[in-house]
Write a structure and sequence with these properties.
This protein is mainly alpha-helical. It is 51% helix and 5% strand. It contains 12 helices and 4 strands. A 4-stranded mixed sheet has the order 1-3-4-2. Helix 3 crosses helix 4. The longest helix is centred in the middle third of the chain and has 26 residues. 42% of the residues are buried. Bound molecules: zinc ion. The site of zinc ion has 6 residues, from helix 6 and helix 8.
Length: 319
């Protein structure tokens, strides 16, 4: 069962570690060059202008237009954990997950401790989030910086990963503005909810892939995809090889399979014509087995009456 409040369905989370170290980033193509001696943070915080450059390219790739660009807020891990803890706690109560393994109800304090620790674990691995309720994008540059330091990525790769994560969240904002994503996710539960989430995540992944290709940022994008779809890191306090602690009842994020299977599903049905993905989002599968085996699913036809359903235009100049 999925116990995700809507706010969590558009997280972009780094789950991986065991994959091999990423290859060294290539020489940068024509891009606003990052000066390696510049402090990373200042460079990363320059996200608004970048979003204004990326948005038209996302519109071109998807053949849909933003009604407006969502505000972008750069937040710390701590800020994000605080933001996440409240709806997590509410969801825990709403979904009656505030029960201990022996069947007795959790005390207030036990609920607080549990949701806070889960919120911190999720926040520590989150690169970006589109908040369905507030209609804002939260970006956490600290995450890429922290992972980058651990793996000796170049400042440029770190900067690009954060920018691609922001692009991924922009796609979710576009889904929300033009396909009512938040309202529809709220109205669903169980497998149909997981299926819509997978199509939404898969769509965001394939659009970000296409954007990265246009930019010549495939190495950073590969690293990002490896992070998001990789094997989950051991929880704090565990060592590799030991059994993981019992899973807690409140899920904090879409699982790696939602991204991976969702992207494979969207690729299977939309191929290289990304605008086709809108009909998948409008009428997603209801059974998870259809996401896992896309051939089972008969995709709905593109609605010719949809004024936005038009083929890709010519590539724009690289932002
Ligand atoms: Zn996402």
């Amino acid at each position: 069962m999925t116990l995700l409040p809507a706010i969590f369905t558009s997280l972009l989370i780094a789950t991986a570690t065991p994959d091999p170290d990423p290859p060294a980033p290539p020489t940068p193509p024509a891009q606003p060059a990052a000066n390696a001696s510049e402090p990373i943070k200042n460079d990363l915080l320059d996200l608004d202008p970048w979003a204004r450059l990326a948005a038209p390219e996302i519109e071109r790739l998807t053949a849909r237009s933003f009604t407006k660009l969502p505000p972008i807020r750069v937040v710390s891990e701590d800020d994000l954990a605080t933001t996440l803890a409240k709806p997590m706690r509410e969801a825990m109560i709403r979904m009656r997950a505030n029960v201990k393994r022996d069947g007795t109800p959790m005390s207030d304090l036990e609920m607080t401790v549990r949701t806070r620790s889960q919120a911190y674990r999720v926040a520590a691995r989150t690169l970006g989030l589109y908040d369905h309720d507030q209609k804002v994008i939260l970006v956490i540059p600290q995450t890429a910086e922290k992972l980058g330091k651990k793996r000796a990525w170049s400042p440029e790769t770190i900067r690009r990963i954060t920018r691609l994560a922001l692009a991924h969240e922009l796609v979710h904002a576009l889904q929300d503005q033009t396909a009512d994503l938040a309202v529809r996710l709220d109205a669903l539960s169980g497998e149909p909810e997981k299926c819509l989430m997978a199509v939404s995540e898969g769509h965001a992944v394939v659009v970000t892939d296409a954007l990265a290709e246009t930019l010549g940022w495939s190495t950073a994008n590969m690293v990002l995809n490896g992070l998001v779809t990789g094997v989950e890191e051991p929880a704090p306090g565990t060592t590799p090889g030991t059994p993981p602690p019992p899973p807690i009842d409140l899920h904090g994020s879409p699982s790696a399979s939602v991204y991976q299977s969702g992207a494979a599903f969207v690729r299977h049905h939309a191929g290289t014509s990304l605008p086709k993905a809108w009909s998948l989002l409008a009428s997603p599968p209801k059974a998870w087995a259809d996401v896992l085996d896309p051939k089972r699913f008969a995709p709905p036809a593109l609605d010719p009456a949809d004024p936005q359903a038009k083929p890709n235009s010519e590539p724009a100049t690289t932002p």
